[in-house]
Write a structure and sequence with these properties.
Helix content: over 70%
Shape: globular
Radius of gyration: 22 Å
Number of domains: 1
Distance between the termini: 56 Å
């Protein structure tokens, strides 16, 4: 334990690292650390991508430009294989989701007390109390999944119209006489998409962060023995979770435009 080791108990230490910096009350409570880290990462990386693309040269591309194009080609390939609609928004959206979620997940590989030490050196209490992995906050993961859910509704209405959507809700799969059953199943099916999408990402990253915190309570020589292999394995976890969130978003958008 390295955060005020002489003051905090193990329970206090764990609660400190799992607590958010909050503002407001009730429904309008904002987790400031989640907002700060997620927005900061988004602005930095996509601002950097914008500058690279703006300065790109087709005849002799730089290594950075090649890397970004490789990433986009990878995502675009997933979109072409999965999405069967005509929207031009899906590929850029999928690329944004994959990069942004991956970067937020990547914060989990920083040492548990990194920002506490930095904040203590600089005298910035916000850094000392900050929870640095945005995707361990269900408000963020569910907020992202709800945004996908709203797009699903928009794409559904755009492809089928109001009449087509109502027919799908009330008449399928069991016909008009069982419209109550049809509607109930449809509501459950649609609500399960954003809930499972958001909670899957949150649960995996929260569990990973908690394990890092528990490892940090051990003696320093044991932290390296256990923390090193877990960090290496966690690189795979954070990448897969970003990929899964992206692919499921593409699949849901594709399904919303298909008639069954």
């Amino acid at each position: 334990m390295s955060v005020n080791n002489n003051v905090l108990t193990s329970g206090d230490y764990i609660r400190h690292h799992l607590s958010h910096i909050e503002a407001g009350s009730g429904f309008w409570t904002f987790n400031l650390d989640t907002l700060f880290v997620s927005i900061f990462l988004g602005v930095i990386v996509f601002g950097f991508f914008y500058l690279v693309v703006k300065r790109s040269t087709s005849p002799v591309p730089t290594n950075t430009q090649n890397f970004i194009e490789l990433l986009f080609d990878f995502v675009d390939g997933q979109v072409k294989d999965t999405y069967h609609g005509k929207s031009k928004l899906v590929a850029p959206l999928a690329f944004t989701i994959f990069i942004w979620v991956f970067l937020m997940n990547l914060m989990d590989l920083l040492p548990v007390d990194f920002f506490y030490v930095v904040g203590n050196i600089l005298g910035i209490h916000f850094f000392m109390d900050m929870k640095i992995v945005p995707t361990t906050d269900p408000n963020l993961t569910l907020g992202m999944s709800i945004s996908i859910f709203l797009l699903i509704i928009i794409y559904n209405l755009s492809a089928k119209g109001v009449k087509g959507v109502l027919e799908e809700v009330f008449f399928k799969p069991f016909g008009p006489y069982l419209f109550v059953v049809n509607c109930s199943l449809k509501v459950i099916e649609e609500l399960a998409k954003p809930i499972s999408l958001g909670l899957r990402l949150y649960g995996n990253l929260y569990a990973g962060e908690l394990i890092f915190i528990l490892i940090s309570l051990l003696p320093w020589f044991m932290q390296w023995v256990l923390g090193g292999p877990w960090a290496i394995f966690h690189i795979l976890v954070i990448t897969i979770q970003a990929f899964v969130f992206m692919v499921l978003s593409i699949v849901y958008l594709s399904l919303s435009e298909e008639s069954h």
